[in-house]
# Entry
Amino acid sequence: MFVRTVSKRDLKAVQALLAETWHATYDSIYGEARVNEIIAEWHSMAALEAQLESPLSEFLVADDGTQIGGVVYATAIDEGKTVMLHQLYVRPDSQGRGIGGLLLDEIEGCFPDADKVRLEVEEANAKAVTFYLAQGFAKVGQTPSCGRPDSGIPADIYERPIMWAD
# Structure
């Protein structure tokens, strides 16, 4: 598995990975209909293309040469001192193989001025919470609207220092 920058030709595969992962993770929490609505809005082709063009951001995939196993998207906030992790998803049949940690390490390296990583995670997403705790993250707060100011999806906020930062 190697990590590389997402290109426009990857977007259909990224979109399929996001849909598969969201259904596997969130159908039992929000219901299939609500997950379909979120996917249609948050992971539309237009939304993914906007991520490709977003300044102060990185959009990466883990690729084994035949399929994309994971995706990560982050932006720099707080004058570049914080990496805001917006997406870190690993294909359900590829989870538990180190891909998430690989993507997390890689995305941190893309922001050399940053000293911490922040993310929002649905507290009912036990697999993600367990993963982030194992990666050294700690809960630092909550938000009433995960991912977007108007989502209405409550989430916990986690942070960790970047391991190589001074």
The helical segments are 11-30, 32-42, 45-53, 99-109, 126-134. The chain has five helices and seven strands.
